[in-house]
UniProtKB/TrEMBL annotation:
Superkingdom of origin: Bacteria
Residue ranges constituting the DUF4422 domain according to the UniProt record: 5-225
Pfam families, sorted: DUF4422 (PF14393)
Protein name: DUF4422 domain-containing protein
């Protein structure tokens, strides 16, 4: 029987799935005065961790922890508000279960969310309308100098009008290891160039490395010709689509746009 760990990243105590394969993980635990009961902490274990970088890397501290401290055969990342599910029911008992996952993994070794489509703008323009420009430019420079074989795939993905978002995935171990090593090699290089500026930004924008990584999963999958299966994502919290739409329009016309 395969050892499956689907990490559920959370920064507060919330209801969690009862299925054994779901592992609640307290992200940023090194910065907290309280350890959440029955949660794994992202600063635990004998291997390295980047728990203290959580304000900047967000849920990525969970997958860094797993890379160096978990021995699971299959590893995934979801969020306490977002789960893979074949239904639209906001019910933790209806999310993707072990039987369904095993069936999916017989087809492909990687599970990702359904594509998020922007329709009228590219992945790059979507990023630039929502965040500071500079990190995306530095990201491209890092790839061009340190991972040049990925630059063509990066540029293709930046002009596309869709992406697999949320930093959510499920992968077999060998693929997970390769992806995480590649991802952090790039992100740490970006961090070395921009962190001084990042320290001056507001708390939301300081989560920059988590935002950038959402643009990198498809680059890695495409360049390495990794086949994947898409599974819908259910949002446990109610979505205010009117508010989201208003923010989108405001960004498009430049109101509150970040430089």
């Amino acid at each position: 029987m395969e050892n499956i760990q689907i990490l559920v990243a959370a920064h507060k105590i919330v209801p969690m799935p009862q299925q054994a394969m779901y592992v609640p993980i307290q992200v940023g635990a090194a910065l907290s005065s309280t350890q959440f009961p029955e949660f794994t902490q992202d600063d635990s274990g004998s291997g390295p961790n980047i728990s203290e970088k959580n304000p900047y890397f967000n849920e990525l501290t969970a997958i860094y922890w797993a890379r160096h401290n978990s021995d699971a055969d299959v590893i995934g990342l979801v969020h306490y508000r977002r789960f893979f599910s074949h239904t639209r029911q906001k019910d933790l008992s209806k999310i993707l279960n072990a039987t369904q996952l095993q069936s999916l993994l017989k087809k492909n070794a990687v599970i990702v969310p359904k594509k998020r489509r922007y329709w009228i703008e590219s992945s790059a323009s979507h990023y630039r309308h929502a965040h500071h420009d500079m990190p995306l430019d530095v990201l491209r420079e890092v790839i061009a100098t340190q991972q040049p074989e990925y630059l063509e795939a990066f540029d293709r993905n930046m002009v596309r009008t869709w992406a697999h978002m949320f930093n959510m995935f499920i992968m077999r171990r060998e693929i997970f290891n390769a992806y995480v090593d590649w991802l952090f090699d790039i992100l740490f290089a970006v961090e070395a160039r921009i962190q001084e500026d990042v320290e001056t930004w507001d708390g939301y924008e300081q989560r920059v490395y988590g935002f950038l990584s959402e643009r990198l999963l498809d680059v890695w999958l495409e360049k390495n010709q990794i086949a994947y299966t898409e599974v819908p994502v259910v949002f446990m919290a109610k979505q205010n689509w009117l508010l989201k739409g208003g923010r989108f329009v405001a960004r498009k016309i430049g109101i509150g746009r970040r430089q």
